[in-house]
Amino acid sequence: MARLLFWRLLRTALAVWALASGVFLLSHLEGSTAVELAQPALAELRATGGVTTPAARQALERATRHRLGLDVPLFYVGTHRPASATAGQWHWNGLANQYHRWLRDLLHGQLGASFRTGEGVGARLQQALLFTLPLTGTAATLAVLLALALAQYLAGRPRGHGLLRGALVGLQALPLFVIALGLLLLFANPETLAWFPSYGLEQATDAELDAGYQLPLYLWHMTLPVIALTLSALPELTLQLTAALEAELGTDYATTARAKGLAERAVIRHHALRNALLPSLAQLAELLPALVAGAVVVEVAFALPGMGRLLAEAAAARDFPVLVGGVLLVGAARLLALLITDFLSLWADPRIR
Amino acid sequence: MIALAVPHLFRTPSWAVAWLGFLMLVAAVAPVLPLPYPPHTLDLAHIAQAPLAPGQHWLGTDAQGRDVLSLLVFGTRTAVLLTLPAALLAAVIGALLGSAAGFWGNRARVDISYGVVAVGSVWWALRLPTPWLGGLAAALGLAGIATSGRRRRNVAFRLPLDALVTGAVTALDTVPRLVLVVALAAGAGSISPAGLLVLLTLTSWTTPARLVRAQMLRIRTLPFVEAAQAAGVPAWRVWLKHSIPHAINPLKTLFPLSLARLLGLESTLSFLGIGLPPEAASWGRLMVSYRQEPSAWWLFLFPTIMLIITILSLNSLTRPPK
User: What is the reported pTM?
Assistant: First the structure.
């Protein structure tokens, strides 16, 4: 078992490395846009009166390229620039290339510095995670607990609850951003019900407020995002678990349990549930990365300062170090989820040991 | 009563098929439909007008005075023209790669001349030092293939096809699709509809490949495959003509599901403002536009209804008819 687990983790780790390398190489092909975006705008330069001649502008661009580490070749091998005499010829670039530097820094635990702000990517991601983890963690816990309760409730009456089932199927069909926008339209809209704020957590937490006032404010801002994430994760978990429970309730041991005189609820809770959980545990491995992706949508919709919005903004601004760091982090979350799932399935089914 | 009726209504596939057919028809004839207003005309006299108000905007207008009905129709066109080819391409690529990986496993014996052709043409295409050497190698390899029918023992090497395909699938699946598309779209710069199509295909061929591979592992042990091999049918013919028709069975269920997923992904991308260029009409973008005009519930409601009915009918196609 330990060996199997080790190989599985090693394969996933390799896959994360390959994917991050792919994203790194693909993104850095488009280095010139990043340089343009990292430079001050031309009008701004004119206003300060510093750089006006084309030569000075070129020097500035070279300096920016050097600062961002884009002045060396991209990969170990490459073609010459199209302008040079031997265009299209392949040659060896040596170890002073962008990919080698990135990989070396990564092995030393450094993710580089953001193109936009110059901050360390690690610090940026940590700061964003501190915000996102409570959000997604709460949503995941709520979704799992609600799914457990709802599935037991639904499996108790296989033909009833048409309304609830229909609502779950309908909810499953909706993309997360529709749920988020719908909640905003209903509950954070001056035209309908303005119970919750639609944005503005950053301003609220920046202000000099005492902790006793900040916590309710934080909770007030986080209610709708948590509800949206929970609602998006809930239907799939519930429907899957209900189907598994209904299948387990038709088996012989469930009939035996009923023949012993147990109530249906006790049959579900003490006999069928643990067996029905196994397929759902595999879903749990998908849940953690899926919630990170969900965080992208929810944080953009509610203007929250977290991991998801960091990624979306980095993508818009071609801030590649942050982007690649984010991909690595999500991959790490996947590794963690795999590990947790394997331990949970060991707990649920001792035969696997 | 309604609660009981609605799920049953959506459980009958004929309803779903009719709706999907209607959408395809709308998408096909959108440019010639007699719409009162073209999709991108700004009717500045009627801004954010409610549905059925005086004027000719049946479903109202958005904050810039564009007609919601036209935007919906052209949004349908965008959705169909983007998700249908992407899902088809992904299914074909996934089926070919997955079935090849499942059929040959890691023991695919490839004649050395094919390898020479591949290496030679890649050498020539990439213009590695002295490109004519690659061309020569490719020509020699082709000659080898042409004459190999007469030779009895061929030199062959083993291609770890299964490891390659499963490796690629695992790598693409480690990160949620949305995050991957966002990261890659940033690298590709400003993205065209064709680029988005490639991106969607690249990130969604993995699920069909997984399913078809698993099915093929089962199929290749069945007696009729062995019988075909014993009868001396070449391996590639057994693969293409005898095994693939059975191995792609799971795709019948998966295809509507992957269409639904792509539809959701496309509208999410429009919401995030990455996918399509700003001038393309899209349901997702129409939904977001209510934020400029918080009282305009119709901007959100109509595309949401379209999206939810479409996804529900696609989902209902995956269930077996009762």
Answer: 0.81
